[in-house]
């Protein structure tokens, strides 16, 4: 089940932001995230803010959901009204399973964003989807509405792994959906993989890598399985029914991914993300990783504008009720300090292939970078040019390097 929201200071009823945070909205880019909290079933490893029809007491919560999102969008337009972003650079619709909403509703939400702030001429517009939740017709509707990128939750090509993760699609469906997306006119298609699932063999993961590299997609994400407290999978492991994931196995799978994807023409640009070309990189995620501004619409969605971060109430009913009353759905917020922003900048930029400037580190941080270089965790050529960029071994130990740069 979804975890608890963090605490923070109250969000004003009208959602207003400090003038200082509005002074340079969009200077580092501006994006919109839309959370769609609905799933047909709950996967055993998932603790995202999502709900099945049974958990919501029926499917009625989806009816009128787009109207609630558009109501929050209207509030956002009022809050940023004096200093709106020049244009929306990226839109990302995530979940949940966004494509459980009719394609026409997703189109209506995108049109609302365009009417409120205007989409940049080259805006990247992504929706996540489960392979079984799209059809050739729905994909064509989404593409015609202005969606430019689709991210499909494949997770694995191995039947046993899909079954253990409680995924509903058949092993070949993700690749078929990717082909349908290309036929519908999507130039940018991502397939997501999860590795390190108990029982997954090296051969299973090799088959998954072969499937994604042969699918004609231009982007692949691969993440190690994380077992979250409160999930069905965590309960099975706690009872001894399944072993916990192995760090050594996860490292082997990562090296296999780098080798297979590199041989197929993909290059890493973030520790868990590979793209065939620079144009195929997920610009919305890059906006997060480089300190941009974004407004998050939907239950539980997080936003960041000018150093203020806030998060919405989680339940769809509470979210809709707040907006129906003309109030912000914000649950709480925090104003980031200079130290907070520095820490996040180091944590996120170090995961990028572009790395971070050594000049952005304090003296203890530069000393830590020198140690990481000596240990073979930073690229010596990039270091000589004044940047901290992880080597392949460094990517395996990225969290440890971050700790060394933030003493």
TrEMBL record:
Residue ranges of the TM segments = none
Q: Which residue ranges does the record assign to the Radical SAM core domain?
A: 24-267
| Record's GO cellular component terms | cytoplasm
List the molecular function annotations (GO) for this entry: 4 iron, 4 sulfur cluster binding; coproporphyrinogen oxidase activity; metal ion binding
Q: Which family does it belong to?
A: Belongs to the anaerobic coproporphyrinogen-III oxidase family. HemW subfamily.
* Described function: Probably acts as a heme chaperone, transferring heme to an unknown acceptor. Binds one molecule of heme per monomer, possibly covalently. Binds 1 [4Fe-4S] cluster. The cluster is coordinated with 3 cysteines and an exchangeable S-adenosyl-L-methionine.
What is this protein's record name? Heme chaperone HemW
Source organism (scientific name): Micromonospora pisi
């Amino acid at each position: 089940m979804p975890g608890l929201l963090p605490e923070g200071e109250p969000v004003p009823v009208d959602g207003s932001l400090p003038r200082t945070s509005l002074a340079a909205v969009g200077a580092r880019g501006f994006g919109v995230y839309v959370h769609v909290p609905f799933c047909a079933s709950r996967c055993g490893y998932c603790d995202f803010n999502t709900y099945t029809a049974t958990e919501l007491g029926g499917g009625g919560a989806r009816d009128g959901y787009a109207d609630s999102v558009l109501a929050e969008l209207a509030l956002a337009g009022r809050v940023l009204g004096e200093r709106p972003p020049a244009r929306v650079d990226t839109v990302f619709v995530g979940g949940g399973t966004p494509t459980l909403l009719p394609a026409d509703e997703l189109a209506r939400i995108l049109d609302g964003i365009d009417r409120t702030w205007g989409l940049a001429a080259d805006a990247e517009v992504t929706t996540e989807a489960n392979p079984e939740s799209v059809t050739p017709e729905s994909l064509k509707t989404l593409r015609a509405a202005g969606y430019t990128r689709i991210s499909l939750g494949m997770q694995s090509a191995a039947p046993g792994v899909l079954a253990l993760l409680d995924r509903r699609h058949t092993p070949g469906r993700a690749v078929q959906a990717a082909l349908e997306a290309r036929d519908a006119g999507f130039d940018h298609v991502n397939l997501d993989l999860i590795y390190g699932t108990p029982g997954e063999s090296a051969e299973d993961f090799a088959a998954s890598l072969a499937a994604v590299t042969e699918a004609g997609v231009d982007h692949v994400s691969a993440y190690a399985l994380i077992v979250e407290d409160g999930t069905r999978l965590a309960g099975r492991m706690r009872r001894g029914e399944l072993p916990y994931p192995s760090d050594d196995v996860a490292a082997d799978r990562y090296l296999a991914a780098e080798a297979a994807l590199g041989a197929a023409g993909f290059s890493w640009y973030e520790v868990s993300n590979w793209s065939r070309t620079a144009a195929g990189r997920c610009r919305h995620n890059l906006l997060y990783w480089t300190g941009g501004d974004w407004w998050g619409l939907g239950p539980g969605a997080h936003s960041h504008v000018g150093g203020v971060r806030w998060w919405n109430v989680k339940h769809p009913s509470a979210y809709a009720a707040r907006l129906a009353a003309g109030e912000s759905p914000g649950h709480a917020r925090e104003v980031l300090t200079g130290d907070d922003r520095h820490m996040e900048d180091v944590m996120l930029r170090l995961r990028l292939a572009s790395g971070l400037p050594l000049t952005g580190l304090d003296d203890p941080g530069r000393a830590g970078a020198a140690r990481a270089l000596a240990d073979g965790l930073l690229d010596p050529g990039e270091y000589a040019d004044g940047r901290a960029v992880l080597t392949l071994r460094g990517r395996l130990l990225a969290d440890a390097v971050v700790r060394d740069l933030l003493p």
